[in-house]
Amino acid sequence: MSIRKKLSGLMKQLFCVILMLIILINTSACSFSMEPMNYPQAKSGNIDLTDWSWEQDGIIPLDGEWEFQWFGSAEPKTMDSNRSNYIQVPGTWDNKVLANGQMIRNQGLGVYSLNIVNQQEGKRLSLRLPNIATAYELYIDDRLEMKRGVVGYDASSSTPYQLPGFVDFEPRTATTSLKLVVSNFDHRKGGLRTAILLGESEQIHRTDRNEISMRFIIIGCLIMIGFYHVGFYLLRRRDMKNLLFSLLCFFVVLRMGVMGDSFLIQWFPSLSWSGAIRMEYILFVLSGWAGYGYFHKMFPREIKRQGFTLFSVSAILLVLSIVVLPPLTFSSLIIVYQIYVLLIGFTILIGLVLARIRRLEGATLEMIGVAGFLFAIVNDMMFYNGIWGIRDLVPYGLLFLILMNSFIIFRRFAHTYERAELLTEQFKDWNNTLEKKIEERTEELHASYRTLEDAKLELERMELSRRLLVSNISHDLRTPITLLQGYLEALRDDVITEEQQRAATIRLMLKKVEVLNVLIQDLFELSVLEARKVDLNIEVLMLGEWKERMIELYSMEMEEKHIQFRCELEEDKIDNVRVSIDIHRMDRVFSNLLYNAIRFTQVGGTIEITFAFDPSDRVVKILLKDSGIGIHPEDLPFIFDRFYRKSDSKVKSSAGSGLGLAIAKEIVELHGGTIQARNAIEGGCIFEIHLPRLDDKEAG
């Protein structure tokens, strides 16, 4: 098969990848917008959910008319309770005029109120609160449930802080009242820019996990591409465009870390709101600068050096203004920073159009990628100015631009191979001609050899760069990506030609992607657990109830696998002994332990769970024993470590991510307990969990 045919086939496959990416972006963008058909709207400070089914209709945004009191910068003693009015949520204050003639400034204090009517009493619900500018307190039924920053009546008495949050609650009456006290004296925009979501706890948290997973996939892709281009730069120091493109990727990643879900603020609590917003604005400016520098190096004739100098000086001045001025001042100058970035974007686009007219290689694909990236930038500007748009499309736009660049690199590789193939054919013709013709073309052959040598060196550099990239990928992502690469190479080289085999290979690839997603979720959960950033939903549970729960969850599955399952109390009198636990997280612990036990227990074997209580040290002991193959003594000290798997090849073939026992250990320790493992004398493995008993005084 010729190089041109291979190129055509791979281009079709890459087109499919683009289509899948577009679908993925649309799915991610819409997954959190939550726009069901005809969902109830709040009217006059009340929202009626009589006909709303959480199971069928899902999550609902609490949009519409909220009751609103505006106090501006008034002291508490001067508040007038009769100044109540209504305001549309979501929406910023933006000097709006209320029906009673009050003008709402962007800086001040306001109180939102909403009554949620006809809730299902006893059902556990969750509220997801977005970033609210810039400090707030949330009250549910007049009880403070969450706060961010310090709410005040002027700049000196308030402390800004922004971080999304979740509040779980159980409605106790048919009407639940929400009150949100918001103050803003530090940012140009005040109010609620994004909807507050209400739904069942699992629905809300699942939606958030999905969005976080998607964001981490995007972040991982951008980081890998960034390091990939750093590798290129280290191999060819004169080629500055690779360094500039890697900086663009890293700037966008860091900006994602201080916006939206604010990962950097969660990981580094010492990072203040002022520091985070300065980072956001500085990275916004530097991203535009790095993008212009990259395209200037790609198309120096069309995108002028004078422009790069001008934008570099402007970037220095803008960054200095962000560092020196207070957040309220420089955030009010957002139009200046936006005009700077838009000028850069449209200047690049005009240069690429000129390059396309001159038929320069890669100009068309670069123009498409920049147009998509520029659209994402304009969308984000509109969204954060409260006009319209979908939240945070810039990372997806950059990913689209990277994909266009990948096409260009691929085409250059293909052209190099095609030239090599052509030169090889010419070489064969020269060997068949007369000696005189060979002598006449000796110099041409030398030139051809030099071209082939340059191409060989370039390919060797590319391969070295690829190895450097792979060596920098963290342990938890390396294996799935390597397997996916193997499948893709087999498809590319037509090693797999039958349609059924191709379909089976694609299914295997999808499974690997699912495994990768599970790895990312497990890594995120383990990191959060290790950092002790988890809010446990503590409930009081008696050992008898816990025993029945285990039987209900696992007995049927054990029976299907032909494994004897016993769950019992060591003594009947400890039936009423109580523990204080997060039931769902402890379910995760036993799920990991039991499925490990099932994996290594033969058909006809037994798995036992025994609950015991030691009055002397007031500790509840839980023993999980199986009749399986046990644990090798050399492995026992390490089984709770990340990614530790047994060296036995049979075990490795069935191993999971290597994170399950590490997660179980963190959850148990988060409850103030301990977990240990040992081998039973008669064979099999025993896991022993110790948890503190809940005293009667604590229960009361």
Automatic annotation (TrEMBL):
GO terms for molecular function: ATP binding; phosphoprotein phosphatase activity; phosphorelay sensor kinase activity. One of its GO terms (biological process) is cellular response to phosphate starvation. Keywords: ATP-binding, Coiled coil, Kinase, Membrane, Nucleotide-binding, Phosphoprotein, Transferase, Transmembrane, Transmembrane helix, Two-component regulatory system. The lineage of its organism: Bacteria, Bacillati, Bacillota, Bacilli, Bacillales. Its main location: membrane. It comes from the Bacteria. It is a multi-pass membrane protein. It is an enzyme of class 2 (transferase). It comes from Candidatus Cohnella colombiensis. The keyword Protease does not apply. One of its GO terms (cellular component) is plasma membrane. Residues 472-695 form the Histidine kinase domain. The chain crosses the membrane at residues 216-235, 247-269, 275-295, 307-328, 334-355, 367-387, 393-410. PANTHER family: PHOSPHATE REGULON SENSOR PROTEIN PHOR. Residues 420-472 form a coiled coil. It catalyses: ATP + protein L-histidine = ADP + protein N-phospho-L-histidine. It holds the Pfam family 7TMR-DISM_7TM. InterPro entries: 7TMR_DISM_rcpt_extracell_dom1 (IPR011623), BphY/WalK/GraS-like (IPR050351), Galactose-bd-like_sf (IPR008979), HATPase_C_sf (IPR036890), HATPase_dom (IPR003594), His_kinase_dom (IPR005467), HisK_dim/P_dom (IPR003661), HisK_dim/P_sf (IPR036097). Signal peptide: none annotated. This is histidine kinase. SUPFAM superfamilies: ATPase domain of HSP90 chaperone/DNA topoisomerase II/histidine kinase, Galactose-binding domain-like, Homodimeric domain of signal transducing histidine kinase. Its EC number is 2.7.13.3. It is found in: Cell membrane.
